[in-house]
Amino acid sequence: MTRRSRRYGILLGGLAACLSTLFLAAQLTAQEAGKSTEAKEIAKKEAAPAFTHIGSAKCKMCHQTAKSGAQYKLWQESAHAKAFETLKTPKADEIAKKKGLTVPAAQAPECVVCHVTAHGKPAAIRGGVKDDEGVGCEACHGPGSEYQKLTVMKQLYAGEIEPATVGLIEPTEAVCKTCHNEKSPTYKPFDFKTFSAKIAHPVPKAEAKETEK
Question: Following CA atoms 8, 12, 17, 22 in sequence, which dihedral angle do they give, to the nearest 10 degrees?
């Protein structure tokens, strides 16, 4: 091999090594960029609320007829629906004042939190809920952005999906006692069985079977 050919061989070898290094660097950069994008998407999903409140008015669409148990009407006539209005009374303001609050009861977060659905939650989670609906459907059943869909309801009735995966919660004694407890200035001993019976609004069996289809 001549001196010139050896020189060309060294140059070509060096060029190949450089190209290989550049190609490897490009691959690593692409992989890192992919990981960064994936990490951002994961963070975005984790930051976004899983379920959003839609407001009791949306529940009305499927829960107002006698066939469905007239559930919306039962709620409207309950103390829960009037919970925020009770805070606007002179009696509520008197209680608030005795508790050392410096604003009317209807403006005090300490009072409103248990008289309004999702009070204090971020706007993205609170969604369509308004103060004047008081303690609405979703205060006891969970935010309805996912389970409001008829297809999802059918799956729930058929036992095909777990309620919690779509935001639906069971209104257990523990759920009720997040507000019906000794922290309330008007607290009275809370018997879950007695009080839950007063606001019971079951879906008629015939309608439940129809919904499963």
Answer: 130
Amino acid at 16: A
**Whole-number Å distance between alpha carbons of 112 and 133:** 12
> What does the alpha-carbon distance between residue 168 and residue 170 come to, in Å, rounded to a whole number?
7
Structural domain including 22 reads: 1-48
Buried b (16+ CB within 10 A) or exposed e, 128-147: bbeeebbbbbbbbbbbbbbb
The neighbour count for residue 55, using CB atoms within 10 Å, is 19
Instruction: Check whether residue 95 and residue 168 sit in a common domain.
Output: yes
Q: Verify that 103 and 20 share a domain, yes or no.
A: no
pLDDT tens digit sequence for 16-53: 555 455 555 556 555 555 556 555 544 444 444 589 99
What φ, ψ does residue 191 adopt, rounded to 5°? -100, 105
Give CA–CA dist 30/33, Å, rounded.
5
Pair (63, 113) in one structural domain: yes
Number of domains making up the chain: 2
Claim to verify: residue 116 and residue 26 sit in the same structural domain: no
Look at residue 94 and give its three-state secondary structure.
Answer: helix
Query: Which CATH number goes with the domain that contains 107?
Result: 1.10.1130.10
**pTM for this entry:** 0.72
Average pLDDT estimate for 145-158: 94
Among the three residues 48, 69, 84, which one is the final residue of a domain in this structure?
48
Residues in CB range of 200: below 8 A, 6 or more apart: none
Over residues 64-92, mean pLDDT: 94
